[in-house]
Amino acid sequence: MRLRTTLLVALLSLATACGRGEATATTAEPEQNAAATPVAVLRAEGGFVTASMNVLRAPRVVVYSDGLVIADAAYQMTITETEVTQTVDAMKKFLTGQPPTASPKPGAPMVTDIPATVLSVAGDDGKMIEVRAEALEQVADFYPQELVAAKKLLDDLAVKATKENEKYTADRVRLAVESVPTAEGKTTPWPAGVPEPSGQVDPVWQKDLSGAEVSALVKAAPPIPDGGLPIFKTQSGVFVLSWRYLLPSE
């Protein structure tokens, strides 16, 4: 009897120990939140613009999966999960079935030097559905009204974000520099701590900055200068400098 009792206790102890080992082995690490990704975008491309503007052109608006909305890389706001879903669902309805490059109906007036409108939304498979339309705003009556509605939906979000006036900033920026050897006006030495171009720039020199370089740049050249673009002088030449904050997805 004593022997059977001893064996039973030993078996129970072994089972308990195994159970503890199993629990430890199967304990899962907490899941990390996935980075927010763009789910709806309105941007422009092409058209008659300066070289610096082309380098620095930001999307009119980007809607991210976590509800962040950024307009013109300058303003931001947050919308609810429901609003994100409604926006994506509406954009999918508008863009699904449209050709990648939409064409206006015959009879549309000829418009030149105007940037094309590019609309995109995350599809059910996670890939972006993208539609490009030349001069969509100027000849809207000649395009499918779904494209006009899609542009208005995202434009309205951009307008709302701008009106809320919450400035968007980041710890990364994109820098664009152009040579202006005949520039008139006050010149200042190139800002310390900011990488500078070497030699002649043709047509534009660009560089993405981060960390301390960003702080040095913002101090020397505010994002929206009151008196026009600053003119800087280096051993290589005279340059105008412009920049914008990079988006989380850039």
The mean pLDDT is 84
Number of helical elements: 5
The helix content, as a percent range, equals 25-40%
Q: Major sheet: order of its strands?
A: 4-3-2-1-6-7-5
**Strand segment tally:** 12
The SSE order reads HEHEEEHEEEHEEEHEE
Strand content: 15-25%
Shape: globular
Span between termini: 75 Å
Category by helix and strand content: alpha+beta
Largest sheet: 7 strands, mixed
Provide the gyration radius in Å: 28 Å
* Low-confidence residue ranges: 1-33
Brief digest:
The protein is an alpha+beta fold and 250 residues long. 30% of the residues lie in helices and 25% in strands. It contains 5 helices and 12 strands.
Which labels suit this protein?
globular, 250 residues, 7-stranded mixed sheet, alpha+beta, 5-stranded mixed sheet, 5 helices
Molecular structure report:
This protein is an alpha+beta fold and 250 residues long.
Helix-strand blueprint:
Layout: H1 2-25, E1 38-45, H2 51-56, E2 61-64, E3 68-71, E4 75-78, H3 81-95, E5 101-102, E6 116-122, E7 128-133, H4 145-164, E8 172-179, E9 188-189, E10 205-210, H5 212-220, E11 231-233, E12 238-245
Parallel strand pairs: 5-7, 9-11
Antiparallel strand pairs: 1-2, 1-6, 2-3, 3-4, 6-7, 8-10, 8-12, 11-12
Helix pairs in contact: 3-4
